[in-house]
Amino acid sequence: MKNQQTVRPRNNSLRSFLFLGAGASLSIFAMLPTAWAEKSENGARVVYSYTLAHEATADSYDESMAVACLQGLANRDRLRVYVLSRKNDRPEYWKKILSSKGRWLEGMTFRKLADLDALVKLVRPKLKGAVIWDPKVPATVNVASTIAGVEDAVVLSPEYAEKYLEAWKLDVLVDLRGRFTGEMTGSKKNDAYRWAIREYLRKGRCSANFLCLYEDACFTRARGNIGYVLTRDWAMKHRAFVYDLSPWGDEPPGDDPGQRLGTDLATYRMILEATVEQAAGEQMTEVTGFFAFAKYSNVRGHASAHDPVPTEWETVWLISPYNCYQNTISSDCFNQSFHSQAPWTRLKQRRPTDTLKLANKAYIAVLMADYDSATPLYSFLPKHWDDPKRGQVPLAWGINPNLIETYPDIVAYLYETATSDDYFTADASAAGYMNPNRISKKHLPLFVRHNRHFFQQTDMTIAPMVLDWNQPSADVKNAFTRFAPDGFATIVMDLHGTGGHGPKPHVWKGMPVTTLINSTCNFSDPRQAADAMFASLKHKPADAPGFFFFRIVWIGPSQVMQTMEVLREKHPELDVELVDPYTFFHLFKQGMNR
Q1: Is 513 in contact with 488 (CB distance < 8 Å)?
Q2: Domain end call among 303, 338, 373
């Protein structure tokens, strides 16, 4: 029986009580629980900021690990700690924006913590002890993170344990050094994870809402790579199971070349099986994080039969039947445990007011794609959102609606600052990146319930980038009509050679269905992108309108405008119109019904 206290419902009490509906007028701070933030003697709201002291060293890895654990524990049920960096300016960027007039951090006092000792003193009433990981088995840093979340502890390296245990007066709850020898599986790494599965995941002590696919210490600690260290405040807050395994069973991983073939994959499946059992059909599970390129795909320094993109797809193929979806990249995402507590009302976006009459021309829509996960939203999008040309052409911004669980304040900021030519749709694949064809028929009602919740909260009705191994089945299309009735587009990659192919354009029970054109995704310059567009546009029939939805990744509106200018300049014979996604699919339906 799963531990109900560790399985967080989709709407926590703060959110469910702020879902007021579009257009509601209310002072959100008047509704905040008294425990939401501390107050000073003059009544000001107070939180504490900690600035990472070390950068790009093994010591920065150990410091960030301790800080992330302490932050996640401190922020578990209230706002307390915000982490800043001397190297990464995004935490300060978002702090400044979200503290401006009318936004939720306006008037918040940030008290600086002098050092790690001060942070420990702040969190000490909640801190029950320490977990020491074993650098000789790098995977134990993830096992230690899982234990710390469940046991309310801090993860320490042996060096940090020697330095701080006595000063902080902490008991050692678990010491993982020397515990895993490979006796069980022939792999120390897999022995560690299987022990954690047995002792924590299968006993219902971990969240069924979240799994954390965070790179371990193998290639990262020595370089001081903290991308998937500082994110552990999220794992800590939710008592999530943390792991780092290969999705491939046909070659050994780069961090454990001597393991028996398929051992990583078998352990991966054990994690998924235990999680879906704990979820009991009541909720889908987010896998936040990403596979480690240097271990599991063909990159410099690691020869593999599998390139990075197929490895990403294989991960999603693997997790989808277990009702899991990916928040694909969350590296370098600061303060998730803090941002996630931002109050917000149900979001509302604009719809086009002009109704175009269908004509014999080529209609183009552009998906500003790949903001389906935390890192692109938090780190990449600001540059393109601040493009001075934004608002001069209609664009669809692909932002997965489930990200309101992680960064509700950032998503709300985008809606607030959108122009009349900015529209929001889901990205890969809906409310989370999964292969819908891999969801079992019996779990499709859960799939619909999950997606309807997030689509409704973000006022989305279009899913233009559904990634799958084959065209959508009738059952999948029926499911999407329940939450994305205004449009469905897909990219099909049949990497398993099962005969998959994309759908012919059609309308299914009122929902437009087509293919998202991916030839423009690797944008190098406007001329290359214009040529890629023309390669599709030239197939438009002479006597009928054509419909072309293009995916462009991490590119700004200025470059889209330049691409359209080049396209018209090079091919003046084309009658082309760039339209918003709602107009595109509205005209598409008319064209299909001719």
Answers
A1: yes
A2: 338
Burial class of 396 by CB neighbour count within 10 A (0 to 12, 13 to 18, 19+): buried
Residues 366 and 309 in one domain: no
- Nearest-CA neighbor of 216 among 105, 114, 294, 313? 294
Task: Check whether residue 477 and residue 444 sit in a common domain.
Answer: yes
48 within a domain of the structure (yes/no):
no
Considering the domain architecture, whether residues 326 and 366 belong to the same structural domain is answered as no
Which two structure tokens, joined as six digits, stand for 23?
A: 């257009």
Is 255 in the same domain as 325? yes
pLDDT band at residue 73, thresholds of 50, 70 and 90?
very high
Q: How far apart are CA 469 and CA 513, in angstroms?
A: 16
Number of domains forming the structure of the chain? 2
**Residue 519 DSSP symbol:** T
Residue range 398-418: average pLDDT?
97
pLDDT in the model for residue 594: 79
What are 81's two structure tokens?
């700690």
Tell me, what CATH number does 534's domain have?
A: 3.20.20.490
Cβ distance 439 to 323 under 8 Å? yes
Of the candidates 77, 152, 79, 170, the residue with the CA atom closest to the CA atom of residue 116: 170
Which of 52, 371, 361, 364 lies closest to 224 in space, CA to CA? 52
Asked whether residue 541 is assigned to any structural domain, the reply reads: yes
With CA atoms as reference, report the closest residue to 423 among 450, 384, 393, 402.
393
Q: Are 322 and 285 in contact (CB under 8 A)?
A: yes
Euclidean distance between CA atoms 99 and 416, whole angstroms: 15
Say if residues 392 and 423 touch (Cβ distance below 8 Å).
no
Measured distance CA(581)–CA(569) in Å, rounded: 24
Q: What is the pLDDT of residues 382-400, one digit of tens each?
A: 999 999 999 999 999 999 9
Q: Which domain holds residue 508?
A: 362-592
Quick one: pLDDT at residue 352?
94
Query: Residue range 328-351: average pLDDT?
Result: 95
Whether the predicted pLDDT of 6 surpasses 60: no
Q: Furthest-apart CA pair in the chain: how many Å?
A: 81
**Side chain identity at residue 223, one-letter code:** R
Question: Phi-psi bin for 329: left (phi > 0), alpha (psi -120 to 50), beta?
Answer: beta
Tokens 């696919």 locate to: 213
Enumerate the β-bridge partners of residue 425. 398
The C-alpha atoms of residue 112 and residue 321 are separated, in whole angstroms, by: 46
Token pair for 541: 């029939």
Q: Is residue 98 part of a domain?
A: no
Are 323 and 381 within one domain? Answer: no
pLDDT digits (tens, 9 = 90+) for 413-436: 999 999 999 999 999 999 999 999
